[in-house]
Backbone:
């Protein structure tokens, strides 16, 4: 497997990154295991239209979802068949 750097991964399209990640997981080994965290930790999207994980709005949503109150409200909404 070719050597990948963060710069190379940033230059890829989201779909190319997703394919590379999937192939790295499938192949495994030291090369595969090195690529997966590089992609995951980059915060770059793996699909079109995605919001990067370092975006302030994404981080706020993540914080709310993982909070005790947020979980309770999500469960309540599900029970009430709300979106």
Residues:
């Amino acid at each position: 497997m070719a050597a990948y750097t963060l710069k190379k991964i940033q230059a890829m399209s989201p779909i190319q990154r997703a394919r590379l990640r999937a192939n790295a997981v499938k192949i495994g080994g030291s090369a595969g295991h090195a690529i997966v965290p590089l992609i995951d930790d980059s915060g770059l999207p793996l699909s079109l239209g995605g919001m990067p994980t370092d975006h302030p709005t994404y981080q706020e949503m993540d914080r709310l979802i993982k909070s005790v109150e947020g979980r309770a409200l999500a469960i309540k909404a599900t029970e009430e068949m709300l979106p």
Observations:
- The mean pLDDT is 89.
- The helical segments are 6-11, 14-27, 29-42, 56-66, 68-79.
